[in-house]
Amino acid sequence: MDNNCVFCDRTKLGERLIAENNGWYVAATLGQIIGGYALVIPKAHISCLGALTSYRPGSETEAMLNITGEVCRALSLEYQHSTSATPYPVTVFEHGIVGQTIRHAHLHLLPTVIDLTPRIRADFPESEFEELRYAAHLQELYSKRPKPYLFWTVPSGKSMVCWNPPAPPQYLRLIMAELLGYPERGDWRNMEPELDKQLRQETVDRLKPFFA
Q: Looking at residue 97, what DSSP letter applies?
């Protein structure tokens, strides 16, 4: 635990908190690009989700996959009216140390399907890209070479990682907002406060019943 970290202090999540279990929080993010924008946050103070323990029954990675699946299902049902589990109509991404504004791991989930890959490849042509073959592949790769990375899902349901890109702060947020047609919402610090508050509350109200 880091006393100076906003994600280490449950009280700082306040009314944004949607759900929690022994190891994880689910919260509406500050800077709602679109309604339903949620975060999955480990209670343990770790730098990125790649640093979780490798997959095994009862592991941190298994717990993360389980709660992320629950949030994806809730977003699919509530925002996309989809009952299909594979793939969920949700885009997931993480700034794995690169571009973080809060130095505590957190996974972004939005109820929309966007392929970020072409933009990321164009922006970082010198970086190494890798398709993840299974759910815990990121943790296995990171344990062997703990380098900064960007992680995201693609419309097929598969996941991608870009190793050691020179990405600016909030990079994935910024390009997601641009691709969704809301470039002014990319930087969470600059979003219009009343609109953000309205969308955050709506996100909490619509998702919380799935975790009651």
A: B
For residues 167 and 98, is the Cβ–Cβ distance under 8 A? yes
Q: What is the pLDDT of residue 54?
A: 66
Q: What are the residue boundaries of the structural domains of the chain, listed by start?
A: 6-196
What's the gap between Cα 57 and its chain centre? 23
Cα-flanking dihedrals φ and ψ of residue 107, to 5°?
Answer: -100, 130
Low-confidence ranges of the chain (pLDDT < 70): 1-3, 54-58
Alpha-helical (H) ranges within 50-192 are 60-79, 117-123, 137-144, 171-180
What pTM, to 2 d.p., does this model score?
Answer: 0.94
pLDDT digits (tens, 9 = 90+) for 42-94: 999 999 999 997 656 567 888 899 999 999 999 999 998 887 777 889 999 99
Parallel, antiparallel, or unpaired for β 24-28 and 38-42?
A: antiparallel
CATH superfamily for 6-196 is HIT-like (3.30.428.10)
Please report the pLDDT score of residue 81 as a whole number: 86
Dihedral sign for Cα 138, 105, 177, 186, please. negative
Q: Which helix (H) or strand (E) holds 20?
A: strand 17-20
Instruction: Report the C-alpha gap between 144 and 136 in whole angstroms.
Output: 13
The token pair at 110 is: 């939005």
